[in-house]
Amino acid sequence: MTIRTTTALLTCAAIAAAGTAGAEIRLGASLSATGGAAFLGDPEAKTLEMLVEQLNEEGGIDGEEVELILYDDGGDPNQARTFATRLIEDDEVVAIIGGSTTGTTMSIASLAEDEGIPFISLAGAIQIIDPVREYVFKTPHTDRMACEKIFEDMQARGFTTIGMISGTDGFGASMQAQCKEVAGDYDIEIAADETYGPQDADMTPQLTRIRNTDGIDAILNPGFGQGPAIVTRNYSQLGIDTPFYQSHGVASDAFIELAGASESEGVRLPGTALLIADLLEEGDAQREVVTSYNDAYRERYGEAPSTFGGYAHDAFLLMTNAIREAGSDDPDAIRDALEATDGLVGTTGTYTMSEEDHLGLDLSAFRMLEITDGGWSSVE
Q1: Does residue 105 sit in the same domain as residue 147?
Q2: pLDDT exceeds 60 at position 16
Q3: pTM for this structure?
Q4: How many whole angstroms separate alpha carbon 247 and alpha carbon 227?
Q5: Spatial distance between the Cα atoms of 329 and 139, rounded to a whole number of angstroms
Q6: Is 83 within 8 Å of 348 (Cβ atoms)?
Q7: In this structure, is residue 353 part of a structural domain?
Q8: Domain carrying residue 152
Q9: Angle of helix 143-156 versus helix 170-182 axis, rounded to 10
Q10: S-S: 121 plus which of 62, 99, 146, 372, CB 3.0-4.6 Å?
Q11: Three-state SS for 162?
Q12: Does residue 12 carry a pLDDT above 60?
């Protein structure tokens, strides 16, 4: 197999595309491999490149090789739309994977929907698939589901009154709104509601106000990127001992490294089986796929895979399975096959799609995790 490499254009880097010049099936991707969301896009890009090479070495899809045309949008929604346009009009791809963030996803989604190209997003906001768009799917749990999983755990621990400190980025703002919508279903009152911006470097004032609010049982921080790590360090520096929850937006080893092992000790969040691959029991339905991906990624890149790379793994699995099931690389046939996905086991959960559900996961796919001794442990 040969490697076809696109060249960088100014700040619009196009990363190595794995495949062959004569590939029959062209798959596109636009990811945030650099910039502020690189912690999402970099492992996603590495995962797709690795999986395409593996697939082609094994004979491709029914004997046809896959060519991955992958662009780095740097987390810029405008660049993401530009690259999606290029993928559809110039590169003539049959489907797209990408959208590391909610912002870049929504730029790609509107175009994919207009052009009739199946698109699987790797971002978390519920608005990506609710309401359902005909050609748009996603692999991560929604922010609403994350709220529900966290509130289930809080309810089990007898917590009824919480403080919330949320990022104002697209993901943080969306999850803040979703948590407010479902809190009452779990008899939870949000007694303090603070926010911070993407560039803020100190959230001590907001945390102090939460600490000084009477009756707070726990603190929840919806957000992603460096913000939650700063919040976690500030929380530790203030000596707050109220139970602390983060979102699945920071479910990776990189968060522990950025926040600090001692500072993040005891933090709970909903995550995927991938983070506790070595703890999965023999009978766990996800054990085989998680272990296989974990081992291959470590061997290829010399580092542990992240939850976000797992989202790309599952998107690629869903897309290639749909192409096989469709028996065609026609975009409409692929879309129909994606929607008919039934019981496909990935690193994030077991996917069963329908006309009304373009995610295909339920809360059972989430694992409630806790940071213990600088690593991940299951609390279920």
Answers
A1: no
A2: no
A3: 0.89
A4: 12
A5: 21
A6: no
A7: yes
A8: 143-277+366-378
A9: 50
A10: 99
A11: strand
A12: no
